[in-house]
Amino acid sequence: MHLEFIYLSYVTGDPKYREKAFKIRHAIKKAVPRSDGLYNNYMNTDTGQWLARPTHISMGALGDSFYEYLIKAYVQSDGQDVEAYQMYMDAMIAFENKLIFTSTQSRLVYFAELKDTSINHKMDSLACFSGGMLAMGATKSVEPVRSRHMSLASGIANTCHESCARSKSHLGPETFLFSSRADAVAYGPSEKYYILRPEILESYFYMWRYTHDPKYRAWAWDFVEALEKYCKSEAGYSGLRNVYQPVIKDDVQQSFFLAEVLKYLYLIFSDDSVINLDEWVLNTEAHPMPILMRPHYSISPAS
């Protein structure tokens, strides 16, 4: 809720919301860090320290929005929130050193997960937002980080596209694995479903805005056709139980389908002036918030 609380203080003039947001971030920063610089997904809220067990580090579920909001806090502040940028950059470098891999079969770039001491070579569909996040961070960085992170962003977007292209429905599964058997595919029944998630489109949107490479619009249109063919129903759209055998729908239209899937698709095919990224930052549910220009914006931390 960092972006939302910062904006709430901005529009109300009451600093208490901003102070609460910074207090949380400072508690995270103050906690005894891991030697590799990565953040555990679990913290003891009574002690303000990371849990020794379980250790779960992921760009997917539980970890995703934390990293997203670090770079977006920097953008929202019009570059004043340097602490957020530094925390973001330190975290990305730690991921590069430990949990970003390239598959041996297809040379696909992906974020792995760390559970206790084991690295799991799987990636959640949720983590597909990270292509857009890395691209955003790259535009705020200098060389050589700028080029390196833009290349990573492109690689992640391509991997997530492949997770779609390798299914019969051309929609990606909830989780996909990388192994000697295959790359970017799901194996278990609990991994093969699609619940109208938007994160792949989120990366297509940012990559389109930052590069204007026409392949991102082409990939987005392929996504539209898949939604129309396999997810559309009389009353709306619903997810699929199995993207590889797209016969049975789950009979649920998720709220984020309206908030994010349709919005990102609209923006991909709109002019850049529609929600100009020099003026707006999208929160984790794709709701636009204005970039708070100086001198009105203050990042004074909680005491």
Automatic annotation (TrEMBL):
UniProt: Ca(2+) binding residues: T284
EC category name: hydrolase
Tagged with keyword Signal: no
InterPro entries from the UniProt entry: 6hp_glycosidase-like_sf, Glyco_hydro_47, Glycosyl_Hydrolase_47, Seven-hairpin_glycosidases
EC number of this enzyme: 3.2.1.-
Top-level taxon of the source organism: Eukaryota
GO cellular component terms, A-Z: endoplasmic reticulum; Golgi membrane
Pfam families: Glyco_hydro_47 (PF01532)
Pathway: Protein modification; protein glycosylation
Cofactor(s) named in the record: Ca(2+)
GO molecular function: calcium ion binding; mannosyl-oligosaccharide 1,2-alpha-mannosidase activity
Keywords: Calcium, Disulfide bond, Glycosidase, Hydrolase, Metal-binding
Cystine residue pairs: C128-C160
GO biological processes: carbohydrate metabolic process
Family: Belongs to the glycosyl hydrolase 47 family.
Protein name from the UniProt record: alpha-1,2-Mannosidase
